[in-house]
Amino acid sequence: MSLVYNTKVTSIGPLVEGFYPEKMIILFKDNAPDELADYCVMHSINDLKEDIKEGYTLKIDGIDYKITAVGDVVNKNLRDLGHICLKFDGSTKAALEGTLYLEDKEIKEVSLGSEIQILA
């Protein structure tokens, strides 16, 4: 497997845990607008080596999640803003263009320093 994307969590907004029951995590590079920062998992590194595709694997601290669908603007938003939503509901059609859909599996809660990777 080749590394497509790799980042580390630098801060976690106080309202992030409220999205876990919705099977969702919102990622944003450290420059998120103040009105969004409370809802986001923030990270500093943002180096997308190639476009993300269905069938790739997202890892949070070594836990694997198969990518089931990729919204139309996921690659652009991740590259430009470091901002996408992760939705852990197993959808095979991307209903929201800025969302990366993952297999329906319990979310590994992120913490400071958590590593998030995407592998081809």
Automatic annotation (TrEMBL):
User: Entry's PROSITE patterns?
Assistant: PTS_EIIA_TYPE_5 (PS51097)
InterPro entries tied to this protein? PTS_IIA_glucitol/sorbitol-sp (IPR004716), PTS_IIA_glucitol/sorbitol_sf (IPR036665)
Q: Which residues cross the membrane?
A: none
For this record, the Gene Ontology CC terms, alphabetical, are: cytoplasm
GO BP field: phosphoenolpyruvate-dependent sugar phosphotransferase system
GO MF term (any one): kinase activity
> Phosphohistidine occurs at which residues?
H43
Name of the protein: PTS system glucitol/sorbitol-specific IIA component
Give the lineage: Bacteria, Bacillati, Bacillota, Clostridia, Eubacteriales
